[in-house]
Amino acid sequence: MPINIMQCRSTYTTGGGPDKTVLLIAEKANPAKFTHVLMYMHGAYDTDFQIGNWARAKGLTIHEVPEYKKLDLDNILRVRRLIKQHQIDIIHTRDHKTCVVGYLATLLNPRVKRLFTAHLWQDHDSLKMKFYTWLNLKLLKHYDKIIAVSCALKEFMVARGLPAEKITVIHNAIDTDAWQRTNVPETIRDELSLPVSAKVVGVVGRLRYEKDLPTTLKVAQRVIAERPDCYFLIVGDGPDRDELEQEVADLGLSENIRFLGFRHDTIKIYAGLDVFLSTARIEGTPNTALEAMAMEAPVIYTKVGGVGEIIQDGHDGLLFQVGDVDGISKAALNVLNDEALAEKLRKNGRQSVCEKFSFTQRLKAVEAVYESLMETNS
Fold first, then answer.
1. Is pTM, for the whole model, over 0.85?
2. pLDDT classification of 71: cutoffs 50, 70, 90
3. Which domain of life is it from (predicted)?
4. Closest Cα to residue 106, out of 119, 116, 117?
């Protein structure tokens, strides 16, 4: 009999890196050994929620649970019913809210094993987030196992009282066969009719505080001042978009800095880049970095979270401290002006991802955790 797993997420609109992972795990699983049911909580009035459509297009089983308030007790009962309906063996939660819901929904069902993946975690200033962190750390002591996507995340949790032996580090990974330039006949350059000689820097991610887009814009200003033939393409949506677009307009750079919104075809973006850039303040192990490296786009990233565990500075990418506008700007110009450096980063970046961050390897590691959980039931 296959092991029945419920993948649980609470997110909005188009989600993020963890949702790519959830869909890929469910799609690539061996159906003779594992059955995946997806449970997604999202705002009841979130008309832009797309993950359900993507899952169904792949033939996956997904249940969308609308949220009418912060913690809806009816939804906990609904998740309990789904666990019973699908005879779930393992509930696999991936964020603050589903950590709580997963615990409460299985409280009277000790047969179901609890697994949590920490994709991103950090200390917060806000009282609300401090409470969520405290609550999750308390509840995770009642989880059977925890996966951390970086050693840095494991250290964070151990320092706050979670037992190290309960936590397994499994880095994020991508499907390297899918993410390669030969799969892209037409790039974003063609779509936007950019000059053949133009240089293109890409930024992919949610437009919100964690990604520190104000620093990105400062870097863009400096680079464009030196290279007026350079375009910055900012891909993604979020609460800061209007403010950022207004800042670009005020700078008179709307031609060179373009906001493309959310794109489901990011492979087409990466394939057209001369540099992939992130000035993020906070990260786990970002899928975007792995995707860019696999697509042979030279990567410049801030050294936060687990980024230093996937990028070797100077070998397959360039790393800088948060807010280092001067260093990041100079690095971007160096890569744009030095073809030998760019080629080195392109070649080494793809090689590193193929050797160390292949999704096939990650899937085997995650499935080994599932099997170890079930062995404790034997």
1. yes
2. confident
3. Bacteria
4. 116
